[in-house]
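Reply to dn_fold:

You asked what the input looked like. This is it:
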Amino acid sequence: MKQFLSLSLVGVACAFGAPAFAAECPRGALDAKFCDVDDDMVADAPTDPKQWVDPGTLIFAYTPVEDPEVYRGVWDEFLRHMEKVTGKKVQFFPVQSNAAQLEAMRSGRLHVAGFNTGSNPLAVNCAGFVPFTMMADKQGVYGYEMEIIVPAASPVQSIEELKGKTIAFTSQTSNSGYKAPSALLASNYGMQADKDYKTAFSGKHDNSIIGVANDDYDAAAVANSVLNRMVARNAVDSAKLRSIYKSQSFPTTGYGYVYNLEPGLAAKVKDAFFTFDWEGSALLKEFGKSEPAQEAFIPITYKEHWAVVRGIDQAMNVSYACQ
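and this is what came back:
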């Protein structure tokens, strides 16, 4: 990670409406309306019960994917389980972009969510997201790698040969789809965006992968967890793709709730994740295809598990300030 920490690249800010200011309290990098008295780097629940939210229907959103409706079915069993545990109706909210998901939680329209690796810091600091779990295998092994892929028939064999080529990224909030590969290209290869290579933004890992398979892009930086799942369900032909780089492992999607969810309800939401039976479920069928398999929810802390991601953000001068 040392190679990332010497960088000074253009930052990406969380561009949402200005929040109301809270009374002075410890908050670290959190937005001004949050407090962090216990120094765990996530927003504390409000001390005033009048500020808690206790909705009749919990709204859940999974990180943006190529077809949100496919994942409505994947998550249905789990959401029905959450209904039993919480005593609330739970509705799946399909989101089309990371920005839309962040804004939905910040505006109070989203209560429980899975934010992708790169969006977690923005969600935590701008929207009051409190991540507490992620998927792992039954032994607690988790993670994915960023890979740079090219069309199988491409003459490109190394990153250096991407000079002058078009590289597809997903969005500026994505860790593996933008921040980590940008830092890598600049620090290890001296390659600057739109100077040494052309950039394209596909919006989603799925779009980047299909784009490379169809020769729309010379290369793409993607999360191999998404790639593996797409190959497993025949959404893309692996014979049309070739990897020329694989990174260290990163944490996967973080799941959690909004900071001002009524504490008793928040505890039930956590219980719903940790008591879900994966055996024979649609979640296992979909996420068990990853390597390592994602077949259980394990407890995590943002402070510990997202340290490597925050390091990359720091290297790229990413701002967590809400504007």
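The CA atoms of residues 53 and 261 lie 5 Å apart.
Hope that clears it up.
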